[in-house]
Design a protein that fits this description.
Distance between the termini of chain A: 34 Å
Shape of chain A: elongated
Largest interface: A-B, 53 and 53 residues
CATH superfamily of the largest domain in chain A: Winged helix-like DNA-binding domain superfamily/Winged helix DNA-binding domain
Order of helices and strands of chain A: HHEHHEEHHH
Strand content of chain A: 5-15%
Helix content of chain A: over 70%
Number of strands of chain A: 3
Structural class of chain A: mainly alpha
Oligomer: homodimer
Radius of gyration of chain A: 21 Å
Largest sheet of chain A: 3 strands, antiparallel
CATH topology of the largest domain in chain A: Arc Repressor Mutant, subunit A
Chain lengths: 167, 167
Amino acid sequence: MEYQEAKEKFISTWGSLGTLWGINKAMAQIQSLLFISTKALSMEEIMEELKISRGNTSMNLRQLMDWGIVTKALIPGERKEYFTTEKDVQELARHIAKERSRREIKPVIKILKDVSSIKDDGTEKTKELIKQTKALHDLAETADAMMNKIVNQEQTWITKSLMKLIK
Amino acid sequence: MEYQEAKEKFISTWGSLGTLWGINKAMAQIQSLLFISTKALSMEEIMEELKISRGNTSMNLRQLMDWGIVTKALIPGERKEYFTTEKDVQELARHIAKERSRREIKPVIKILKDVSSIKDDGTEKTKELIKQTKALHDLAETADAMMNKIVNQEQTWITKSLMKLIK
DNA sequence: ATAAACTTTCAATAATTACTGAAAGTTTAA
DNA sequence: TTAAACTTTCAGTAATTATTGAAAGTTTAT
């Protein structure tokens, strides 16, 4: 496999994986393109490389910046804006985990807490609802806490912890 | 909050969370309905409760069965088929983690391995592609291994391990 | 073998989500 | 202040994904 083929394979695979996990294709592809690029890229270059429109590129770059995994890299003397992604996979994982926790997991935990706190009226179905949502709440909270804990350590800690678990 | 409201809130929240993570709404809602039900439900009952068509119910039940988290519960003397979901949250988490690993993570790890194994032609861009996809490969493999490790223990082990990590 | 009771399939359609391109907006240089 | 160089926005459209409903299929009872 040659460079060009490998690059395309990587970008398109990453795009499909994103889709499978609720992330849009263009967003995943822009990120992966930046991830293997040796330099910051302009909007023009991204559009050209991925064959997507200016508007699409602009919107997805903004989203990636909102997620904190892409940043503007101002190149001295250049008028255009250039973009780079976090290049360290562990930092990348940190950002993504942190954001998904904040945006998606935390709110659901909150609702599970509310739902599992309804008044027990003594009926079987109410008891079951309370029991099951409480179990889900506890699982979600434990998993989320673990995630955040891992994510808030210095980078090397992650590998060490995981290794400890695995071996 | 009364039972009915809590129930609806739970089911619709679970549906939205599913959507956010690439699982279709009906599928997530059927599962959550079964999860808090005190008994196995027929297709009729599910359709009625969630206001979805027979075809949709049938297809999504099949998918849930493919994922191994819903099973047919044959009720003696009944012609109809009844369905239940895994009621233990930890078993549920096990199944989901295991399946997502098998279907989605493993194939991507394979591709990352291929891509990161291309011949180093000495150019900077090739070196970068190799370096970055290798880093991603290692991260994915470590995370996946951890997942599978956790997932293949007896149930209580999970909580213990997570607790150890957190405290 | 027939029919009733049920489930599955799938073409048509609806709903959702992503993408485009051009107009409007912004920034910088002269 | 003007205009060139660039970015953002957003209404319209395209692509994708989910859902319906009815016909076809299956199973069971008689």
